[in-house]
Amino acid sequence: MRLELDDVAVEIAGARLVEDIHVTVEQGAFVGLVGPNGSGKSTLLRCAYRALKPAAGTVRLGGDDLHAMKPRSAARVLAALPQETTAEFDFTVAEVVAMGRLPHRERTAAGDRDICARALARTGVGHLADRGFLALSGGEKQRVLLARALAQEPQVLVLDEPTNHLDIAHQLDVLSLVRDSGPTVLAALHDLNLAAAHCDVLYVIAAGRIVASGPPHDVLDPGLLAEVFGVRAHPVRHPETGAVQLLFDLLPSGPGASTGPASSPAPSPDPTVRTPCAS
Ligand SMILES: Nc1ncnc2c1ncn2[C@@H]1O[C@H](COP(=O)(O)OP(=O)(O)OP(=O)(O)O)[C@@H](O)[C@H]1O
Fold first, then answer.
1. 49-85: string of b/e by CB count within 10 Å (b at 16+)?
2. Cis peptide before 252, with omega less than 30 degrees from 0?
3. What is the mean pLDDT of residues 185-204?
4. Most buried pick, 40, 85, 216, 239, via CB within 10 A?
5. Nearest-CA residue for atom 8 of ligand 1
6. Which residues belong to any copy of the ABC transporter domain (predicted)?
7. Rounded-to-integer distance, Cα 200 and Cα 109, Å
8. What is the distance between the alpha carbons of residues 249 and 233, in angstroms, rounded to a whole number?
9. Ligand 1 pocket mutation pick from 8, 17, 21 by most atoms within 8 angstroms of CB
10. Does ligand 1 come within 6 angstroms of the Cβ of 39?
């Protein structure tokens, strides 16, 4: 199923945090969103998973206006892994994952149990099923919440920094498992090498606006990385696979000249979308 943000803007308390957002995630594609701290990634994603209503523009899920859909209809096809989840009650891990089945109540409980067990196993947290969620480590919580999202059997998955808190093996594993599980994916990622390795298309956001998009190795050029992130990037080839990896050091000008919300100036000289995304 296709996800599309068409000319979206988001305002909170009168401040415009993101604007002019055109993002298309084709059915089955894995699309990454990268940008400096405070550039608007979570705000954009929250709008894409229905936690924030756009002040302008439309989010379309398979052609329907996501924000006009009934919550349960949307939750049957779209799941999200938010950056922060507050939990007031200490549910067990098994109960948290079972919440992913709530939008599909007409299925049998036995079917639900199998789906949840598979999701727990695929994310490597089956052994934690009877533990309380609140006492888990950051990485364990992250994988349980991914299990809950997978248990929802979504056609579209929106992930806000899914590798946050994860060790390197789990970072690689989680992105591969999301990719192999087949839904359309829109994910904010901080690690540019992971983003390049796993995404079909990348969007770069700075100061609340998309400033570049396209295939990862077209988008992540040293000039743009210097402008947007304030780093010098050195491309090197993996000695075995030949894949290009980037090594970074800080430019004297320092990080992110463009970290603020949409009302701050976008990076100069020209916030050009370098390679238009397929739509
Ligand atoms: N509820 C809010 N009220 C006011 N400002 C907000 C609110 N939520 C976010 N902002 C501001 O909007 C801007 C974008 O925030 P957002 O969380 O979307 O950035 P981000 O790119 O996800 O950052 P990070 O990489 O640090 O997670 C920031 O300047 C932030 O302080």
1. bbebebbebebbbbeeebeebeeeebbbbbbbbbeee
2. no
3. 95
4. 40
5. 43
6. 3-232
7. 36
8. 7
9. 17
10. yes
CA atoms of 225 and 223, how far apart (whole Å): 6
Q: Give one DSSP letter per residue of 252-269, joined into a string.
A: TT-S-TT-S-TTSPPPSS
pTM: 0.89
Q: Give distance in angstroms: CA of 99 to centre of ligand 1.
A: 27
Tokens coding 224: 């743009």
DSSP sequence for 62-105: TTEEGGGS-HHHHHHHEEEE-S----SS--BHHHHHHGGGGGGT
Beta bridge partners of 59: 5
pLDDT in tens, 254-267: 664 445 566 654 55
Distance of CA 37 from the midpoint of ligand 1 (Å):
8
Ligand 1 atom 28: residue of nearest CA: 38
Q: What b/e sequence results for 12-47 when a residue is b if at least 16 CB atoms lie within 10 Å of its CB, and e otherwise?
A: eeeebbbbebbbbbbeebbbbbbbbebbbbbbbbbb
Q: How far is CA 110 from CA 98, 101, 117, 131, in A?
A: 12, 12, 11, 21
- CA quadruple 221, 226, 228, 229: dihedral sign: positive
Whether pLDDT at 114 is above 60: yes
Q: Is the CB of 46 under 6 A from ligand 1?
A: no
At 121, which amino acid appears?
A: A
CA distances from 128 to 22, 115, 254 (A): 40, 16, 42
